[in-house]
Amino acid sequence: MASRSTSTRPESQVLAEVLSHMIPAEVLRNLDSAERRGQVVDKRDKEFCSSLSRLKR
């Protein structure tokens, strides 16, 4: 099995890609709206949420 290098992409983006297939769409929408309302304060949470948002578009 070939291992793919993820060095060109941020970890949060890769993680978001994987989890976007596992997390229900409703949960993703809730995360997205929480981010827009400014309820997500942790920097990693913000990166993760915006990575998920980009994947949904």
From TrEMBL:
It comes from the Bacteria. This is Uncharacterized protein.
